[in-house]
């Protein structure tokens, strides 16, 4: 089962994508159950309700689904929490030692964008970079969890993310400026859908990225330094995670920061894919000064 939102920005229709009785994949209109896919829906058993409605045949097929824009698979999260340098090879190519505890930073929730929306390069940016990441969708409020087992039960599902980063804004300076480098407009494409947690093995998923059709990143979540339950448990000691929040788990080696590839240029096409979670694609353009 894949959970998505289709339609123009701000008017997306919640859908469930699943095979029908003949094995043909269909997009089912979820509006009989909810107006949108958000934290409140997830916290109130939304995933289970969608699955039951599918089994009972109570969701109509959305006939024009193939013609609609693919939006973010859930409405804007309250928080986008990120884990940095969570693959040893990426830490090495960044000039850092693998961390002993998770490196945590936040992205503004207004950076979230659709998986196929055109993506702006900031007007003054010279080192705009891609980062394919496994995203965790939080399904219930958690704080001060006592175990990683509790943490695992808080996950509603998983999603593809691209943590776009302007390295010149992020890294120079005595203390670094990660917030500046990670907060740019449309710098967190999510989707094309999210898959419920009980249908995913987050410990063994291939993740890849391409620039203009050339492979850049090729790794597996088995190489994560901190796995999903460890991340959620750790975060819960420092913040409240709410339903609908998204946690990005870090990116593997193969980014432009490595020095092996050029940074993103006007007209480039970047694709990011995670096994079972789909592929997203952005075409980049240089934003004008004063653009919103």
Strand content: 25-35%
In order across it, which strands form the biggest sheet?
5-4-15-9-10-12-6
Query: SSE order in H/E notation?
Result: EEEHHEHEEEEEHEEHHEEEHEEE
Straight-line N-to-C gap: 35 Å
Number of distinct beta strands: 17
Average pLDDT figure: 94
The residue ranges in which pLDDT falls below 50 over 5 or more consecutive positions are: none
The helix fraction, in percent, is 10-25%
Number of helices: 7
Global geometry: globular
| Main sheet properties | 7 strands, mixed
Structural descriptors:
single chain; 7-stranded mixed beta sheet
Structural description of this entry:
The chain is α+β, with helices and mostly antiparallel strands. The protein is 15% helix and 31% strand. It has 7 helices and 17 strands. The strands form 4 sheets. A 7-stranded mixed β-sheet has the order 5-4-15-9-10-12-6. A hairpin with a 6-residue loop joins β1 and β2 (13-19).
Secondary structure elements and pairings:
Blueprint (H helix, E strand, L loop, with lengths): L1 E5 L6 E7 L5 E5 L9 H5 L2 H11 L23 E5 L3 H6 L9 E5 L4 E2 L5 E3 L6 E2 L2 E7 L9 H5 L2 E8 L2 E2 H4 L7 H5 L5 E9 L9 E6 L2 E7 L7 H9 L9 E3 L20 E6 L3 E9 L6
Parallel strand pairs: 4-15, 6-12, 7-17
Antiparallel strand pairs: 1-2, 2-3, 4-5, 8-11, 9-10, 9-15, 10-12, 13-14, 13-16, 16-17
Short summary of the structure?
It contains 7 helices and 17 strands. With 292 residues, it is an alpha+beta fold. The mean pLDDT is 94.
């Amino acid at each position: 089962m894949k959970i998505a939102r289709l339609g123009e920005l701000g008017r997306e229709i919640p859908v469930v994508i699943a095979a029908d009785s003949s094995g043909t994949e269909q997009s089912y209109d979820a509006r009989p159950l909810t107006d949108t896919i958000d934290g409140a829906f997830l916290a109130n058993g939304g995933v289970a309700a969608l699955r039951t409605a599918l089994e009972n045949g109570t969701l109509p097929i959305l006939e024009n689904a193939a013609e609609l824009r693919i939006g973010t698979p859930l409405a804007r999260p309250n928080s986008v929490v990120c884990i940095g340098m969570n693959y040893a090879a990426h830490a090495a190519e960044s000039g850092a030692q693998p961390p002993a505890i998770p490196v945590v930073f936040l992205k503004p929730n207004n950076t979230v964008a659709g998986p196929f929306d055109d993506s702006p390069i900031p007007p003054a940016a010279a080192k705009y970079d891609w980062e394919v990441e496994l995203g965790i969708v939080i399904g219930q409020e958690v704080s001060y969890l006592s175990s990683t087992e509790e943490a695992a039960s808080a996950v509603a599902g998983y999603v593809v993310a691209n943590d776009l980063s302007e390295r010149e804004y992020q890294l120079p300076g005595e203390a670094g400026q990660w917030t500046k480098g990670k907060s740019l407009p449309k710098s967190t494409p999510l989707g094309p859908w999210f898959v419920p947690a009980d249908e995913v093995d987050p410990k063994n998923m291939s993740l890849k990225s391409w620039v203009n059709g050339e492979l850049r990143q090729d790794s597996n979540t088995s190489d994560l330094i901190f796995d999903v339950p460890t991340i959620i448990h750790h975060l819960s000691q420092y913040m409240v995670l709410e339903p609908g929040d998204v946690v990005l788990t870090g990116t593997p080696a193969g980014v432009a920061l490595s020095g092996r590839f050029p940074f993103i240029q006007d007209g480039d096409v970047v694709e990011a894919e995670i096994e079972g979670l789909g592929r997203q694609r952005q075409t980049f353009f240089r934003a004008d000064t004063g653009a919103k």
